[in-house]
Amino acid sequence: MAYLNENYLKLQSGYLFPEVGRRVREFCEANPKAAKRLIRCGIGDVTEPLPRAAVEAMKGAVDELGHHETFHGYGPEHGYEFLRSAIAQNDYRDRNVEVADDEIFISDGSKCDCGYVLDILGDQNKVALPDPVYPVYVDTNVMAGHTGPSRKDGSYEGILYLACTAENNFVPDPPREHVDLVYLCFPNNPTGAVASRVQLSRWVDYVREHDALLLFDAAYEAYISEADIPHSIFEVPDARECAIELRSFSKNGGFTGVRCGFTVLPKSVLARTENGRRLPLHLLWQRRWSTKSNSVSYPVQRGAEALYSQEGRKQVRALIAHYMGNAKLLRDAVADAGLEAFGGVNAPYIWVKTSEGLTSWQMFDRMLRELNVVITPGAGFGAQGEGYFRISAFNSRANAEEVARRLRDLQ
Amino acid sequence: MAYLNENYLKLQSGYLFPEVGRRVREFCEANPKAAKRLIRCGIGDVTEPLPRAAVEAMKGAVDELGHHETFHGYGPEHGYEFLRSAIAQNDYRDRNVEVADDEIFISDGSKCDCGYVLDILGDQNKVALPDPVYPVYVDTNVMAGHTGPSRKDGSYEGILYLACTAENNFVPDPPREHVDLVYLCFPNNPTGAVASRVQLSRWVDYVREHDALLLFDAAYEAYISEADIPHSIFEVPDARECAIELRSFSKNGGFTGVRCGFTVLPKSVLARTENGRRLPLHLLWQRRWSTKSNSVSYPVQRGAEALYSQEGRKQVRALIAHYMGNAKLLRDAVADAGLEAFGGVNAPYIWVKTSEGLTSWQMFDRMLRELNVVITPGAGFGAQGEGYFRISAFNSRANAEEVARRLRDLQ
Predict the structure, then answer these.
(1) How far are the Cα atoms of A245, B249, B385 from residue B342, in angstroms, in the given order?
(2) Which of residues 291-330 of B touch A (CB under 8 A)?
């Protein structure tokens, strides 16, 4: 009989969001009246329509496919040149960050890239992950066999967890021990924290010293409002020698249902074989895409390109301003309710301490029952998330205002 | 320093189509006049515009995303119910094949699914592959570490190759030895061969007897013209216990640039752990998609759904008739040129013996130089492909007619 990948059997029962979904469903079935006033501030999913520029570009591209003279079949496996070049120019070179067009790889989203990237890495790597953390970093490493079994608190043996706490402002210091592969995400999901240039430089120094690799998830960079915070790891000197950056159009262009993101993999990033040979990871990544993919839907790539047009940029800025207006409302309301809150200034997430003595799932149930508001329990993001919950600012203004009103009644 | 996946270093230098591309580019640069009359019958890429029904559905879906009331964010990770159900009903239940909606998993294409499927399988599986074969089956197994190093003829140690030759009509018999995982593709790429019900039953018997798993690639099922040939492996009794089917909208709906396909994984397919526990692969596959993907672009899924509408079905039939008209022209012309040809009746590919004494790359160069026609050398698909070449019927009628004319001059 065919063997299955036994690493899957180590996975904790539910991915966080399905469990949230289950509890909400059961509550709504039992409380049909409360169900009608339910507001979801849980999953980080956008709510506002796509920017007009993207809509027009996608429709135009679909029309092209409908006519003989302008039909496109298979696209280049690493993404169309028009999009790779728009990204490299606008997101990097225009901000004085050196990135070549062919160091950009178009994908169907950052969540997917998290898993894909492990395809080209060895199984011997010692991995460090923040705690709390986006569960996909953890689970894809479990599936790839990079961990031991899980412990009672949901953590896995074999992973080095980097505690992100109120004491370190949710930005961990590099560890004393050696690791080969580090995941960082700033602006952070779920804490909303950002790392300063000095803090990121300390990480790049560590990674360089240990000849390690840094996976930097910058999916939320568009939400940075403070001038000094780096938008890309490549703003930090020497990061081109040791980092891969993940970016997404989900949260800036509202592409969660359209599906497009990208990785930046500089040709100068090396990795090693067991016997010490050093090779550019770029070669392997390129081969991965050629062999395993036919890139992303042509109309989707045209839609992503349109986000960089003058109109598109203006529309993206308006979307960000909308969600960050929500974040301010919610953050203020949480404070008025007497709860301690973090984030929400450079990120669409507010990270809140639970009311005295409640676990984060108890707080989840309380918010659901008393306010009919869905939040995400911090414990779902890791052991250090216990005692916190995440409120997402992805909502309509009316909903955000209503949640703010209800929060003030929490006392 | 981070370790890389050393299995990538076992891969033969070029994936077939990049090497074809390189030779064509060099020829065109050296022969600008001939370059102008170049006709490509190489890569199996569609040339005709998308069916109108798909165009309208995709544009409508993009419009939905552009308005507040009809906006969609993240879709279900296994695909929208509307598409899973349209597929299960039209492609299976309407043809008296039992498949449940939740046994359908929507993906961004069959090429991608080939790689994804290995995520949930163990590394101990002994793999059998046809020869010649779609190179992606081989290369994804190499990348996953399921093979030894490559040999001189391009094959890899550790794989059992199933020779597909003129003697067995390009349909191999099950082997005598045990394997855990078998890949089959019918209608076949590259040979254009199809397997009868009896032949497929023999394979299902083998797979059941050996408690193995069958990956059945039916990407070209829409091209079957003969009544008795099964369109799905699930038409064969007991296949629901041991097979996964891969399907694509690339070649029926012309979606090579739109990107959509699916796998069918019956809940009754089991696989084992090292210590003999048996579990449904469906559970692991579901988990893979929840954790590693956010499914396929919403407008793309609406476009795929539209292929099942009355209009859509008519338009797909017209596309198939167009390409199969080309196939007939090309097959006849090849025969007139005195070459021995196979396929082209239930598949858009014609598999041709090279002229006396020529290797398939020599034949490639000859066709390029003398006829200015690009074909695919059989050796690129495996050792048994040596001495053959593939002509693709994916072209405009005018091009197919012109290639047919030139082929008659080959003498």
Answers:
(1) 48, 25, 13
(2) 291-300, 303
Chain A CB within 8 Å of residue B149 CB: no
ipTM for the whole complex: 0.97
Question: For residue B281, which residues of chain A lie inside 8 Å, CB to CB?
Answer: 4
Over chain A (411 residues), the average pLDDT of each successive run of 10 is 94 77 94 95 93 98 97 96 98 98 98 97 97 95 96 92 98 98 98 98 98 98 97 98 98 97 98 96 96 96 98 98 98 96 98 93 96 95 95 97 93 65
Q: From B112, B140, B92, select the one nearest B296 (Cα to Cα).
A: B112
How many other CB atoms are found less than 10 A from the CB of residue B91? 23
Q: Which of A90, A391, A327, A342 is nearest to A193 (CA)?
A: A342
Contact yes or no for A409/A338 (Cβ under 8 A): no
CA distance A341 to A350: 7
Contact map slice: A 177-236 vs B, CB within 8 A: 180-181, 211-213
- Pair B123, A143: CB distance under 8 Å: no
Q: Which residues contact B380 (CB under 8 A, 6 or more apart)?
A: B16, B19, B20, B135, B360
Nearest chain A residue to B258 by CA distance is A297
Rounded to 10 degrees, the C-alpha dihedral A57/A62/A67/A69 comes to 50
Would you state the structure tokens that stand for residue A408, as one six-digit string? 């003030």
**Cis link prior to A132 (omega < 30° from 0)?**
yes
The alpha carbon dihedral of A100, A105, A109, A113 has a sign of negative
Q: Could you tell me if A52 lies within 8 Å of chain B, comparing CB atoms? A: yes
Judging by beta carbons within 10 Å of its beta carbon (0-12, 13-18, 19+), is residue A90 exposed, middle or buried? middle
Contacts of B119 in chain A (CB under 8 A): 5, 143
Among residues A376, A316, A367, A308, the alpha carbon closest in space to that of A337 is found at A367
Alpha-carbon distances of A36 from A17, A27, A46, rounded to whole Å = 21, 11, 21
Touching B: A residues 229-288, CB under 8 Å: 254, 256-259, 270-274, 278-279, 281, 284, 287-288
With 0.90 as the threshold, say if the pTM is over it. yes
Domains along the sequence of chain B with CATH: 12-48+311-408 (3.90.1150.10), 54-308 (3.40.640.10)
- Cα A62 vs. chain centroid, distance in angstroms? 29
C-alpha closest to that of A14 among A377, A316, A387? A377
Residue B261 in 3-state DSSP?
strand
Q: Where is B16: in which H helix or E strand?
A: helix B16-30
